[in-house]
Design goal:
4% strand, two-stranded antiparallel ribbon, 3-stranded antiparallel beta sheet, mainly alpha
């Protein structure tokens, strides 16, 4: 069981990561100036709310230079003062190694304190720790109990994770119908992850109504910032053009997902350019997009694309290939963070904000919160320069 990775587009793979207390997927909010000196003074006097606000400012770089260590310092101050939200936030920081050294056991202790303080969402994070045995003894059965309790108290994420446990049969017998039930409940409880999982589950159903419902859910999840949903919806439109709301919708979605580090979207864009489907047939553009995919996806992508890259290289010649390689490397350098979600915020976004959530590293199960957007966030793979045409 792994976090969202590109394989999620062909099978449901659980997003078992630690997410901050109040994170929810929303559209970007209007950013207003904040009075850092006033907040700093209040935080230093012991105001828990202003300690949290100052931590948020350092996390996002809003009004101060972005500083993860300072963000962690002020969130931990508030956590030590007893705020359950800050306790979960700093627990996430210790799980992810954000501004502090990674310490799964310490993360668990903070999650336990947040649970004791009545924070329902902290049960989900604690459950994840027991699924993986991170800082605690591995115990999927106890994790299921925590997910169930959180879902019964209104946590859509808890319902989503319970559905995943049923789907994969972890600590409980496999049961696809139960998985669907919990995904549906999670969707009703406004979990975007549950919505995406439900969409994937329905997309494999034989009846047209289920598949149509899956497409609607993918559209909603895409709008809410789920990168894999953008890819999946774009691919569905490529395969079924009648689903499109506009002639270029699939390409736009795939470009956005590719810009967010989803290498399989770059592959599909390369295929479309290679074959002239939905765009002009263009060998240079195909090679360029395949090269981006290889740089994004590493060994898996390179192996998959070896024949195409070799064939196109022989057709285009060394001079063009060198120029295209440079273009692709420069683009990937600007889009070097593979993201799971974009436009993260929440009902308390001034206190627990994030712009995006990055994929977890291979040796951890916690993604990295990103506080500020990249300078180039238009989602487009740029056109090749005139010299390359």
């Amino acid at each position: 069981m792994t976090s969202y990775r590109s394989e999620r587009t062909v099978s449901i793979v659980p997003l078992l990561i630690f997410v901050s207390t109040f994170l929810a997927l929303v559209q970007p909010r209007i950013v207003r100036a904040i009075d850092i000196p006033r907040i700093q003074a209040g935080a230093e006097r012991g105001s828990i709310q202003q300690q949290i606000e100052l931590g948020a400012a350092y996390l996002t770089g809003r009004g101060v230079p972005r500083d993860e260590k300072q963000a962690a310092y002020w969130y931990e101050k508030a956590a030590n003062a007893g705020d359950p939200g800050a306790q979960q936030q700093i627990g996430y920081f210790y799980q992810a190694g954000l501004g502090v050294e990674r310490d799964p056991a310490r993360a668990v202790r903070w999650f336990q304190r947040a649970v004791a303080g009545g924070l329902i969402s902290a049960k989900v994070n604690l459950g994840v720790a027991y699924v993986w045995g991170l800082g605690v003894r591995k115990d999927p059965t106890f994790a299921i109990q925590l997910f169930r309790e959180s879902a019964q108290k209104g946590s859509g994420m808890g319902a989503c994770y319970l559905g995943l446990m049923y789907y994969f049969g972890m600590g409980i017998p496999k049961d696809a119908s139960e998985a669907r039930h919990w995904f549906e409940l999670g969707t009703k409880l406004h979990s975007i992850s549950a919505k995406f999982d439900l969409a994937l589950l329905l997309s494999y159903e034989p009846d047209a109504d289920s598949r149509a419902h899956a497409v609607r859910l993918l559209r909603e999840a895409s709008t809410d910032g789920v990168v894999a949903a953008k890819h999946q919806l774009g691919l569905a439109i490529v395969q079924n053009p009648d689903l499109a709301h506009s002639s270029n919708e699939a390409v736009l979605l795939l470009n956005e997902a590719a810009a967010d580090g989803f290498w399989k979207s770059s592959v599909v864009l390369g295929i479309l350019s290679r074959d002239g489907r939905g765009m002009a047939k263009d060998r240079k553009a195909a090679y360029y997009r395949f090269r981006i995919a290889a740089l994004q996806g590493g060994k898996s992508a390179t192996t998959l694309l070896a024949n195409d890259l070799r064939t196109l290289s022989s057709e285009l010649g060394q001079t063009q290939i060198q120029a295209l390689d440079q273009e692709a490397a420069a683009w990937v350098q600007k889009h070097n963070r593979p993201l799971e979600f974009v436009n993260l915020g929440g009902e308390n976004s001034s206190m627990f904000p994030a712009y995006a959530l990055q994929y977890p590293d291979k040796d951890t199960h916690a993604g990295m919160l990103l506080g500020t957007p990249d300078t180039d966030r238009n989602g487009d793979i740029p056109d090749l320069g005139d010299a390359l045409r």
